[in-house]
Every structure is written in C-alpha cells, then in structure tokens.
Amino acid sequence: MRAFTYERAASPVQAVAAAAANPGAKFIAGGTNLLDLMKLEIETPIHLIDVNGLGLDTIETTPEGGLRVGALVRNTDLAADERVRRDYSVLSRAILAGASGQLRNRATTGGNLLQRTRCPYFYDTAQPCNKRQPGSGCSAIGGFSRQLGIVGTSEACIATNPSDMAVAMRVLDAMVETVKPDATTRRIPIAEFHRLPGDTPHIETALERGEFITSVTLPPPIGGKQLYRKVRDRASYAFALVSVASVIQQDGTGRIAVGGIAHKPWRVEAAEADLPRGAKAAAEGLLAGATPTHENAFKVLLVERTLGSVLDEARS
User: Which end of the chain is less crowded, N or C, counting CB atoms within 10 A of the terminal residue's CB?
Assistant: First the structure.
C-alpha cells in the first residue's frame, strides 16, 4: 500500500472542498472495498477524507411518503429497518443476500453503490484491463468470462456490477442525492447513476470529480410482492451469477431488474409489459441484443429460469 495523508471531514461541504483541494483524494467510510484495492495498488489515493463523522447515518420519512436513507447508513441497519422490511422488502432481501454479516456491519449505503467490479482481471495487476488502466486492453475478452457480462458490454470491457443493493434500488426507482465541490446539490435517478462501459469503462458512474453522495431517496411504497432471488456458486458470501429483483402486483404486472449480467443493474421497462405472459416472453425482451461468450452463454437461460421461479413464488 502506498503512503497517503488523512483527514476527518466535519460536514459534507467541507468534505467536497477537501476533495477539490486534493486531486487524487478519495472519500472513505466503511472502506470494505477501497482498502482491498489500496493494498493491491489498484487504487492509489494520495489523500483520504474520512466521512464517517458527517451524521449521514439516519433514515427519515420524506414529505412525499418515501424514505431518505443517509449515505452512511450501514447495510445491516438499512436491511433491518422496520419501514424498509415492510414497504421495500426487495431492498432488505437484496442487502441480506450480499457479503457477510461482518461486512454488512461496516459497509455503507453510498459505498455499496460505488463498489467496483469483481472481474478477476481487474484485480490481477499483471494483466491488461481497460477499467484499471485505460487503453491497456481487456483480458476478459477471450479469457475466463464465466462470471462476466452478457448485455450492455463493449469491445473494451465485459465486467459486471457486483452490488445486490443497487439492483433492488433500480427496481424501486431510487434517487441518488449528492453535493458537488462548488457546494451545489443534485439528484440523479438510479437509472442514470451507473454507466455502461463503452470505450471508457474506467468511468463507472455519473459522479463528477469530488462529488459526494449524501443520501439515497426511495419513492413512496408501491406495494406488490417484493422478492430478490440470487443464484451463485455457493450458498453465501459469493457474488451473483444472476440475480432478479422484482415487484409483482396481483394482476401479474410489475417491475424486474437483473444483476450479474451487465456493467450496471439491468432493467428494460419495455420488457416488463410482457411479465403477464410469463418469464420466457419477458426475458426475451430483457436480453435482446445479448452477446454472451461461450463461457457465460448459460446466463441467458439462467435469467429466464430465475425469473420464472420468482414469478411462480409471486403468484403463490
């Protein structure tokens, strides 16, 4: 790990001012992903801004009837919140499907949305990786790709987003709230927050340099049967091969978002119109244009079958 300087911010505005004054700085809260990346020298910040003391660790009801979740709310606390379990159970289920209890006790809402891919070539600094070193190439294309993307990929990158929480937030149409270095704030729809790789896979979100997530807002509850189904290589502490977050209403209509198959939580609203016709019809629209490799072509059928299982449970 390379040497760095450190400070504790006292307010969000102070945090972003410190980031603006220190190019190459990083915010740190739970550090559950960042510290691993620093040890491997994939991330090499010269300055860390500790944001744990900013008071952004509460969950509040919004005037519209939704919830505002502070960026520093720990994953364990968010999953256990009575309002989340009652009205946004897909989110609670998704969080509990991720990581381990110890990690969930440290990981934060904002940090979860920013965790980086688990593509093995991203973590192997002896291999080319456009996400780690732009322009160096993509070892995953033509390499070991079983875990990687099948839709929204590019010639530069086929990595996937690892977050379970983000898939649930996508199906709930959450909104990410931020403060920028000039102290202005903005709201970013979760649908626009994560980017597809294109030819700049190292740019993973809509955040500008030094911009800081302050909270995530959930809209008023939409009811329905809310489920999260995660298919992985072992029963716990593994990233999704495929996951499905769903909100299904009594008449068979609903919403679905899929994880483990793209550079961002994957949702195609037009495909949701086919949900009453069954999993096969909805999956065809969801995966239109998919370009799997020979190693991960099984994910196409796995998405359909996982969605079918979810729809069966929703009807029961």
Answer: C
